């Protein structure tokens, strides 16, 4: 079960952002990033801020924020994008002119994530639909690049497992490959988010560069990621699980990969519910 996320910015990028992406210049006026993406520093201190941005500790070297937020100068920045499902606040966008890109039940209703109300699954079942969806999400990736992010984190890669059999792993791999190709063209690295079911296909077929794994120690899945990506893995454990998941993770791989403990809602540091530890 993944963390909660903050609302995203408007789906349609501003003219300035689009122009910046096209001409290869960031909104801050700096040169576009190199074609070869850089990876997060292995075992660098990580801060997961998708529930709200705040100033990270000086010791933090990697920051992950929602695409509606700006990156942090002097850090390695990862841009969060909900790429396989919709955000609740974007309902009218998707159910309006893009209804054909949403997965539907036999009665015509939208297939909804059983755990996340208001998140509809995108229909990646055909090449034509994958191309159309990627055309939208690629625009978001361009926005990440133009803001100055170094990498992108497309979430809900495993949505086919919640599709009631309407989508397949092959559909997910084909669509993810489109996103990875575009991210790399933008000079961005791209992360595999969870989904041990991919095995080595995430790196070898999709061309993901590193992995972000939630609760992999709690679910005893961590080796599945490090076997493929080595120490280019970021692990997030949550405070609503047993604490031993975090302490065991620190003991097992805390010296080789980035391991943190966060509150489930990943709230900003100003919130009383905020929890953060790093080993």
TrEMBL record:
This is Glycoside-hydrolase family GH114 TIM-barrel domain-containing protein. It comes from the Bacteria. Residues 1-34 form the signal peptide. The keyword Signal applies. Residues 45-267 form the Glycoside-hydrolase family GH114 TIM-barrel domain. Keywords: Signal.
């Amino acid at each position: 079960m993944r963390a909660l996320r903050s609302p995203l910015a408007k789906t349609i990028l501003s003219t300035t952002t689009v122009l910046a992406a096209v001409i290869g210049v960031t909104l801050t006026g700096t040169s576009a990033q190199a074609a070869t993406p850089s990876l997060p520093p292995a075992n660098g201190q990580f801060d997961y801020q998708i529930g709200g941005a705040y100033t990270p500790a000086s010791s933090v070297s990697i920051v992950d924020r929602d695409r509606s937020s700006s990156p942090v100068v002097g850090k390695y920045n990862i841009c969060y994008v909900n790429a396989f499902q919709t955000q609740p606040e974007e309902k009218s966008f998707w159910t309006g002119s893009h209804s054909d890109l949403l997965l539907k039940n036999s009665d015509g209703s939208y297939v909804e994530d059983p755990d996340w109300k208001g998140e509809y699954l995108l229909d990646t079942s055909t090449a034509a639909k994958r191309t159309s969806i990627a055309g939208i999400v690629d625009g978001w990736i361009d926005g990440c690049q133009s803001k100055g992010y170094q990498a992108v984190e497309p979430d809900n890669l495993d949505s086919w497992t919640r599709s009631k059999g309407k989508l397949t792993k092959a559909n997910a791999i084909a669509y993810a490959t489109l996103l990875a190709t575009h991210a790399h063209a933008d000079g961005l690295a791209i992360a595999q988010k969870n989904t041990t079911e991919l095995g080595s296909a995430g790196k070898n077929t999709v061309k993901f560069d590193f992995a972000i794994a939630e609760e992999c120690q709690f679910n005893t899945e961590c080796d599945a990621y490090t076997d493929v990506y080595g120490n280019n893995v970021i692990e997030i454990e949550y405070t609503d699980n047993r604490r031993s998941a975090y302490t065991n993770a620190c003991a097992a791989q805390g010296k080789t990969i980035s391991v943190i403990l966060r509150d489930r809602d990943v709230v900003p540091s100003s919130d009383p519910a905020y929890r953060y530890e790093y080993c």
